[in-house]
Design brief:
By secondary structure, the protein is of the alpha/beta class. The chain is 51% helix and 9% strand.
């Protein structure tokens, strides 16, 4: 009945209570009945098994899983009451064999089973709860109707962790009353917070989010949904007080569901009535008997009982299966070295301590946040909005701005009238003398003074005004979105809402459409600044709370529950969370007030186990920057090295190193030296940053340590970063991870975005299998950056090996068909969330706004206002159920319409390098690839031109290095001479210091002469091209330093290409590289084929900005994004490319043929009609658009000039432009300029793209006749070279503009669009003056409109 998305929306605003039980512990609770929805548990078990088989084998697997689950729960001492629907027993809730397996498990374990009549399972469960509510601990169910119908405590089966062998269990119990109240508080005004939420309100929210009646659900119908933004709709309903809703509630702002009619309102009210009736029936006298089944229970399947004897055998079978899977997984990784952070060198220590790197960390946003960040509070933004608007002062500011002599004054006047109607009327109506006096009073304070006053009293108001000013400055889509979001947060009737309405009405439809595209950008994923302190993420707060509670228990009793687990989320830096845990939880600063001081745990050490050396250094640098007392530990051959960094030593010049040795000796020596030399921390660290080998050694030592030792296991908090890295590729690595888990301390955190949930992990992940609190704390990845998908392949008909084709791939093309698509999304709820990031804005809007016509002006005007106020998370939450419930017919239609044409990529990998951000390319041999990308010829290459170019580049570098060395030598000589002078000769104020001599490899990238002298010339040339690499071993120190600088590069608002903009990485570096500027990632075939799905997800997660993920084949891309294994033919997505290329060639041939006809009557119209006819369905140009046809005409003309007018080509810019203009006006009997005129701006952008491609392509122009008239075959040959059209690109663009083929909106829309990966920037640079001229003209027009 309830929509499947209501629970996640509720859970966003609260956290569950985590209940853990030892064997028998549940029997002592007053309320110890766990009411189990058998259908939900059965579906969860089937999903966990992931089996597609049928019959006896599948039944045996399900029987094993059910035994483990129910036996583990029963062992806790809780009383289980299992509610089974007879419809499920008959196969109505799944396959019949599944019902038999589950019923056999119930009987085998002797569970209490309540059987409901067919279809009455929910009714019986609710009736049983209401009849026995005082004894019920909670309900285990995935039925979201439990949240609506008043069940106060709900646990979801997939969040329930059961240890079948040890008999322990961990439940995440959601308090539904608290969840509803928190949801209301997050969006309601202060007056409504705390008001009780009625059953009718809950039913209305469920109905508006999506309701399937019993009849439609039985028929497999999708839920009927209303509106575009479920979160906004729900919060509006929660503020209405549970009244009967009229039609205009849905059709008027803020919902504005224009398509909502009387029939929809009736269906909505019917859905609400069904919830109300269900609740009443469950509470009625005799409800239990009315719902119970009278049919006898089905007999157990004897074959299952005979084959498997109880949960112990089931657990043993599962362990054997896992062992076989692990053994089979270690394959295909021969020759790969996995860096796990061991063998630290002097250069590595210097990297950690490097002052310039630490200074960059201290200038980062994360560092500045650390001292200001507060506990998570979902109501703080709403509170700030409610209390932060001083109306009179704001009106005075608006009035002052409206009376300034600026182009925006009239808009400020309109805003003042709309936002402050009462104050405006008081200031502008009445007697003239009173108006004059009031005006003088209002204008007596200047703008700067008013803003300064607001900054000191109402930061929220200042931020709002700043966003309005940004909008009025450019009326661009991003600022429009920010203003609209202000209005959505504040709600109708507020100044922010009125301002947003006014601004939305002041822009053109094109800007509104651009806003609907921009709203999916990653910068729209964060909350607007509400003026208060920054807050932790909810999952960060949950982690700190749980660890704090657990450490307090450990302090009270060592034998307290021993292990708490946490799975980290890649969207938030794990290092930041660990450092925050140390500073805010373990060692918080004392409060300035005299009130209660925060609880601290100063004896607890965070053992941060890193996956790679790069991460070890990064964590060390964070500790350096934040002043954390830390040590590092790393394996050195067969022993270990523990180091105290210089930053914690108070005695400078102290030489007390510990060398290498057994781990216990190293720890004891460091402690002794730290005490002797008065280190910060007195010889005890707060952090130990360790490779995994050292982590295992420390934990083994800690397990045997005395309670007084600082490293006793009760004082260790294990923070295990990416624990599953490489374990499927290296059996030895997996053995070490097993050792770590076997000795896991009382509190351990597994920080990974790709680990499966506890029920899907092998038993060894649970350590020694003693009872423990095992939980998953995560943040669903709704806010990941957009990632378009491409296949870069040389396969397919007519694809040259040296020019691969880049083919965009849609989410729907990742699956072979609708059946696989639906099954994958059903079996993995998180997969759907992950796929949302791969939707383009146009595709997402087509789903959200129900149709490909979302971009039409009428649709944008009608529906754009509603959705534009949402952030990325809310928008993706709204799209998620539409994607999940997509019917087969819609899937087929969208799959075809979303397919895009391929484009050739000359230069292969070089052609897809980003022109604005950092490109990361993953391969087994990253060093070789980096040098190849830089242009070094391959061994045995016969490309003489490449050899010469590379030799010239090396010579240039050597010359720079030699010049720098000479300058350094001269500087040293001059310095020695200066030192001989007396102090009296020194000028007052002179420091005597001189700038260091450096070698500038490229803008923003320099090295010292010493570094250059120690580095190969090939590597220096590579770096000069902006390319660096990271590999598990053998990386030059200079490359390491510059690579690290690249990771710290923070992209600015106006992005320029970073000095190091290509990172070639190997397997380990995927896990060790986190760069905020990465917007393009490329996977190579050699590495991609040996990676697991989890590895691929880590790689795609390296995309930190909206960008592109490129894979070498559709099969690999399909597996990387979905986990679907199987063959995939690249022709499945490349098919359209070849056809379009042929169609474009055919269209160009038609144009050339028509132009070659004998001169006579004008045949332009005839050619247009012929092209139009062939573009219709069934014609040989049917896939071409109107813009394609115009592009074909332009291409034919320009290429014909190159082929037929050699004198013009050789003559330079003016003759060439003249020849092109003449041919565009008249070419034989046709007038091409008339055929390239396009009205729609989006079509004009395609024409500009065609011109761009022509100007960037390599051409062979016909040679001009020689001076002696010899125009023979030899003279006609010319070498390939750059297009002669590039130097006159802006002249061509302006000619098309002057002749009405292009308009201002089309050119500016093209300029605002993101360049396709691999498209060189030369054309954009060439036409930039013309674009700027258009922009200035547009600004002048806006100023005239304002006057």
């Amino acid at each position: 009945m309830a929509p499947p998305g209501i629970a996640p929306l509720l859970q966003k605003h609260c956290r569950p209570t985590v209940l853990s039980f030892r064997p028998g512990e549940g029997s002592t609770r007053p309320a110890n009945v766990l009411l189990v929805d058998a259908q939900s548990v059965g579906a969860a078990l089937l999903t966990q098994l992931g089996t597609d088989s049928d019959g006896e084998a599948a039944a045996a697997q399900l029987y094993q899983a059910a035994l483990r689950f129910y036996a583990g729960l029963a062992a806790t001492g809780l009383t289980l009451v299992v509610v089974v629907d007879d419809a499920a027993a008959a196969g109505g809730g799944g396959p019949a064999w599944a019902a038999g397996a589950l019923n056999t498990a119930y009987a085998q374990l002797g569970l209490t089973v309540e059987r409901a009549k067919a279809g009455a399972g929910r009714q019986l469960l609710l009736a049983w709860y209401h009849a026995n509510r005082d004894s019920v601990l909670g309900v285990v169910s995935d039925d979201d109707a439990m949240y609506v119908l008043g069940v106060p405590a709900v646990a979801h089966p997939e969040e329930l962790v059961v240890d079948g062998v040890s008999g322990g269990a961990t439940l995440h119990m959601w308090d539904t009353t608290l969840a509803w109240a928190a949801w209301q508080a997050a969006g309601a005004s202060a007056l409504l917070r705390g008001m009780q939420i009625s059953l009718m309100q809950r039913a209305q929210v469920a109905a508006v989010l999506g309701h399937a009646s019993a009849a439609s659900a039985a028929a497999g119908g999708a839920p009927r949904t209303y509106g575009f933004c479920p979160n906004m709709a729900a919060q509006q309903l929660l503020s209405r007080g549970g009244i009967q809703l009229p039609l205009d509630f849905f059709t008027s702002p803020p919902l504005s569901i224009h398509s909502f009619g009387a029939d929809d309102l009736q269906r909505f009210n019917d859905a609400v009535a069904q919830y109300m009736a269900a609740d009443k029936a469950a509470r009625a006298e005799g409800a239990l008997d009315a719902a119970r089944s009278e049919a006898p229970p089905p007999a157990p399947v004897s074959a299952l009982v005979t084959a498997l004897d109880g949960p112990q055998a089931a657990a043993a079978a599962e362990a054997a299966r896992q062992a076989a899977a692990e053994k089979a997984a270690v394959a295909g990784a021969q020759g790969m070295t996995i860096d796990v952070g061991s063998g630290l060198t002097k250069h590595d220590w210097e990297d950690i301590d490097a002052k310039e790197v630490v200074a960059k960390v201290r200038s980062s946003t994360g560092y500045m946040l650390m001292t200001r960040i507060q506990a998570w509070d979902p109501t703080s933004a709403a509170s700030a909005g409610a209390a932060g608007m001083p109306v009179d002062r704001l009106f005075q500011l608006f009035f002052v701005l409206a009376n300034q002599e600026t182009g925006a004054a009239k808009v400020w006047e309109a805003l003042a009238k709309a936002c402050f109607p009462t104050q405006w009327a008081a200031a502008t109506t009445g007697e003239k003398s009173a108006i004059k006096s009031r005006r003088k009073e209002l204008l007596s304070v200047k703008e700067d003074a008013l803003m300064a006053d607001l900054k000191s009293t109402a930061v929220m108001a200042v931020l709002w005004v700043n966003r309005l000013q940004a909008f009025l400055k450019g009326k661009a889509a991003p600022s429009l979105l920010a203003v609209r979001r202000d209005g959505a947060v504040a709600g109708p009737g507020t100044q922010q809402w009125a301002a947003a309405t006014e601004c939305w009405g002041a822009v053109t439809p094109d800007v509104k459409k651009a806003a609907l595209t921009e709203m999916w950008a990653n910068h729209n994923s964060s909350a607007l600044n509400h003026g208060g302190p920054p807050m932790r993420y909810p999952h960060q707060q949950a982690l700190l709370d749980m660890v704090g509670e657990h450490l307090s228990e450990v302090q009270k009793a060592v034998e307290a529950r021993d292990v708490a687990r946490r799975f980290g989320e890649a969207a938030v830096a794990k290092t930041f969370t660990a450092v925050m845990m140390n500073l805010h939880l373990l060692r918080p600063k004392p409060e300035a007030s005299s009130g209660p001081q925060p609880v601290s745990h100063p004896d607890v050490i965070i053992l941060y186990s890193v996956p790679t050396k790069q991460v070890l250094k990064r964590v060390g640098q964070e500790c350096e920057a934040h002043g954390v007392v830390y040590w590092t530990a790393a394996k050195d051959n067969d022993v270990y090295s523990v180091r105290r960094p210089y930053s914690i030593r108070t005695k400078r010049g102290e030489k007390g190193g510990t060398g290498v040795g057994p781990m216990k000796d190293q720890l004891d020596k460091c402690e002794g030296q730290g005490r002797e030399h008065h280190d910060q921390g007195g010889g005890r660290p707060a952090f130990i940053v360790s490779d995994i080998y050292s982590t295992a050694a420390i934990l083994r030592v800690a397990a045997k340590a005395d309670p007084d030792d600082f490293y006793h296991h009760t004082k260790i908090l294990l923070y295990f970063d990416e624990p599953n890295m490489g374990i499927h590729l290296d059996a030895g690595l997996r053995s070490i991870v097993k050792d770590i888990m076997a000795h896991a301390p009382a509190t351990a955190i597994l920080a990974s975005a790709t680990l499966p949930t506890w029920d899907r992990l092998p038993a060894w992940w649970k350590g020694d299998c003693r009872p423990a609190t095992r939980t998953v704390i995560t943040q669903e990845p709704y806010t990941l950056p957009m990632s378009s998908l491409q296949v870069l392949s040389t396969e397919g008909p007519g694809v040259p090996a040296d020019a691969p084709q880049a083919t965009p791939v849609s989410v729907l093309q990742l699956f072979p068909g609708h059946a696989t698509f639906s099954a994958a999304l059903r079996s993995s709820p998180r997969l759907c969330v992950l796929l949302l990031r791969h939707l383009s804005p146009a595709q997402a809007n087509a789903l959200l706004l129900r149709g490909d016509d979302w971009g039409e002006a009428e649709r944008v005007e009608a529906d754009g206002w509603v959705v534009a106020g949402q952030d990325v998370r809310s928008l993706r939450e709204a799209v998620e159920p539409v994607l999940k419930s997509m019917p087969e017919e819609q899937y087929a239609t969208l799959r075809a319409s979303w397919s895009e044409w391929s484009r050739p990529v000359p230069g292969g990998l070089r052609g897809v390098i980003s022109s604005k951000g950092v490109t990361m390319i993953a391969t087994k041999d990253s060093r070789t690839l980096a040098l190849e990308l830089a242009g070094r010829p391959l061994v045995g290459s016969k490309d003489a031109r490449a050899e010469i170019a590379w030799g010239d580049a090396k010579a240039e570098i050597r010359a720079k290095v030699s010049a720098a060395k000479a300058a350094a030598a001269q500087q040293a000589k001059d310095s020695r001479r200066t030192q001989k002078k007396t102090d009296d000769d020194a000028k007052p104020g002179s420091t005597g210091g001189e700038a260091a001599v450096v070698v500038t490899l490229r803008t923003g990238l320099w090295v010292t002469p010493e570094e250059a002298g120690e580095t190969e010339d090939d590597v220096l040339v590579m770096l000069s091209k902006g390319i660096a690499y990271a590999t598990a071993e053998g990386t030059e120190p200079l490359v390491k330093r510059l690579y690290q600088q690249a990771l710290l590069y923070i992209p600015e608002s106006k992005v320029q290409l970073p000095p190091i903009h290509v990172l070639a990485v190997d397997y380990s570096s995927i896990y060790g590289t986190d760069c905020a500027a990465v917007d393009t990632i490329v996977m190579c075939e050699d590495l991609g084929k040996v990676l697991s799905w989890e590895d691929h997800q880590q790689f795609i997660g390296r995309l930190r900005r909206d960008g592109t993920a490129i894979y070498p084949s559709l099969a690999m891309l399909r597996y990387a994004t979905t986990g679907v294994v199987g063959t995939a033919d690249d022709a499945e997505v490349l098919r359209v490319r070849a056809t379009r290329a042929q169609h474009m060639a055919a269209a160009q041939a038609m144009v050339a043929s028509a132009a070659a006809a004998p001169a006579g009557a004008d045949s332009t119209e005839a050619l247009v009609n012929e092209l139009r006819a062939q573009r219709k369905e069934g014609g040989f140009l049917e896939i071409l658009s109107r813009a394609d046809a115009a592009s074909a005409v332009l291409t034919s003309v320009l290429r014909s000039v190159l082929a037929e007018c050699p004198e013009a080509v050789a003559g330079g810019r003016a003759p060439l432009l003249k020849a092109v203009a003449a041919r565009l006006k008249q070419w034989g009997p046709i007038r091409p300029v008339a055929m390239v005129k396009l009205a729609a701006p989006r079509d004009q952008t395609e024409l500009v793209c065609a011109l761009e491609a022509l100007c960037l392509e390599t051409v062979v122009a016909a040679a001009a006749p020689s001076a002696d008239g010899d125009d023979g075959a030899e003279a006609a040959q010319a070498a390939p070279g750059p297009s002669p059209y590039l130097p006159i690109a802006q002249n061509l663009l302006k000619w098309l503009y002057d002749n009405d083929a292009l308009g201002e909106d089309g050119v500016l829309a093209w300029h605002a669009s993101k360049p396709q990966p691999g498209v060189k920037p030369e054309f954009r640079k060439a036409v930039q003056p013309f674009v700027e001229w258009l922009q200035e003209a547009e600004d002048d027009d806006d100023d005239e409109d304002d006057e």
